[in-house]
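FW: tagging you since you asked about this chain on Friday. Here's the raw sequence from the shared folder, copied in full. Didn't touch anything.
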Amino acid sequence: MQHIDLICIGKLNAAWCAEGVAEYRKRLSTLCDFRVIELPEQPLREDSPALVQRALGKEAQAILASVRKGAAIVALCVEGKTLSSEELAAWLDDRAVSGAGDVAFVIGSSHGLAPAVKQAAALRLSMGRITLPHQLARLVLTEQIYRACCINRNIKYHK
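HL: got it, structure written out here
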């Protein structure tokens, strides 16, 4: 069974987002080994560029240490590639059938992701040109992972 991790900086504190993610986690449990890893956001007293870069560096260390050995990293970032649901499904399927199926999707903090995480990524993924709050991005991404798994298993969910 394919291992798919969602590594996130910060916790879900909006109940409706947490409920939505929990629902898709439950649905994913029969399709893959899916887990969510929440890492703490580095506190910033001010948003100076140097302090932001230092915080992103610490977050990057925690993120990279949390990735399963051999897993492909998918970094969510605005400059990433936009994929359709079918294209994401095909990418996940290619990973699964290649024998190197483990995947770690990464959502950074409100300041984004450090260059080290982006450089380590097998895929830089954008959810489009719109800006989403991180909690909503986590819910949408979890739903898209579920949709991709359904497409790959020919389960009637995707339309």
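FW: The CA atoms of residues 7 and 48 lie 25 Å apart.
HL: agreed, and The helical segments are 15-28, 49-66, 85-97, 115-120, 134-153.
FW: great, closing this out.
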